[in-house]
Amino acid sequence: MKLVKSLLLGSAAGLAAVAGAHAADLPAKKAAPVEYVRVCSTYGAGFFYIPGTETCLRVSGRVRADYLFGQAFSRASDTVGFRTRGRIQLDARTATAYGLLRSVVRFEITRSSGTPFGNTGTVGSSSPNVAEAFVQFGGLTAGRVTSFFDNGDLPTGHMGTLRFSDAPDVDLLAYTFSFGNGFSATLSLEDGLERRNGAVAGAFSYGGQRVPDVVGNVKYTGTWGTAQLSAAVHQIRSANLFTTAGFAQFPDTEYGFAVTGQVGINLPMLAPGDAAWLAATYANGALGYITGGANNSIGVGTLSGPTVDAFFNPATGNVSKSNAWSVAGGFRHYWTPQIRQNVFGSYARFDYSAAANIAGLPDFNEWRVGTNVFWSPVSGLDMGVEVLYAKVDPRNRVVLPLGASQSSWEGRLRVQRDF
Predict the structure, then answer these.
(1) Using omega within 30 degrees of 0 as the cis cutoff, is the peptide bond preceding 401 cis?
(2) Does residue 361 register a pLDDT over 90?
C-alpha cells in the first residue's frame, strides 16, 4: 500500500509540473485597469470626480409633500389641497485658468390638487418643470436661475406666500463683478414676460416684448449676514389702439421700474442658526417685482384686487403707470438643534391714480402674517406645520368686485426629505 501511495503522489506531482511549464509558455491576459471614483472635497460635501475628468459632480434631490387647509367661501370651494413634488439636481464644477466653470440642472415634477394648489374640484395634475438650468463661467451667468433682483441668501423660512419678489427663477444673461471682501455687483438682462402684470379687459393690454428687463444690484455677504440693493427697468409696450383727429395709433412705450433693499442678519448670540431678514420694495409700472411674477390680481377668498402695471386712458390715449410698495420680514429661532420656528409677515399697498377709475382699478392693501414650526429629527428630514392669516382691504375708490375687506386663514403640513 505504501508503494502504491508513493507512486500516485509522484505521478500527480509530475503532471502538475508539466502543466505549469506549458502554462508559463502561453500569452498572459492583463486585467483591465480599475478606475475608482474619487471624492472631490474642493466644493463641499457630496462632490466626486467624474471618472476620467477633472470635473466634480454632485447629485442631490428632494421629496416634498404638502397638505393644506384653506378657508372656504362657497360650497363649490375645496377646503383641503394636496401637493407632491419631486426634485433631481445635478451640479457640475470644473476649475479652469479663467475661473470656475459651473453648470446646474434642476428638474421638478409637481402634482397638485385642491385649494389653492389646483383648480377647485379638479383631480390633481402633474406639471414637469425645468426649475433651473444655467452655466456660470467666471462672472458670467447664462440660463434659468434666481433673479438677481433678489438676495437669494436671505434666511427666509415661510411656506405660504409673502408680498415681495421672493427669489423667483427667471431666464437671464448676467455678469457679476467681484470686488473682494464680500462685495459684488451684477448687471443682468432678464425675461420681462415673467414679470408682466396686465391684460385687464378694457384697461390695458401688453404688446410684444422688444427689450428685456434690465436688473442691477450691489451686494455684500459677510459673517454678520447679507445686504443687497437692487433696481430693475421694465418695458411697458401697449397693444391698445386709440383714434385721435381721425388717425389710429398706439400710445408711446413707457418704462416702469422697481427698487428693493433686502437684508439678512445672523443672530448667533440668541441661538446657533438664529437669523432675521427684511425686504422693502417700491415699484412704479413694474408690479411683478412685488407680486413675485406675472399676476393679474391677488386676493383672499372671493375678494381680489387687480395688480396692473399700467392702465390705458382711451380719452387721452396715454398709458399711466401704477404704483405699489411692500415691506416683508421674518425671524428664525432654534429652540433646540432639532426644532426651529419662523415668524413672518408682509404688508403691500397698491395705488392707482384718479384716471384709473376709467379702467375700474381700485386702491387696496394686503396684510399677511404667519408662523411655522419645523422638527428635524435627522439630517435632511423636515416635518413642519404652518398657519397664515391674510387680509385684503380696499381703500378710496371702491369698485366691484371689491367691497368690504375680507380675510382668511390657511394651514399647512409639510414633510420634506433633502438628499
Answers:
(1) yes
(2) no
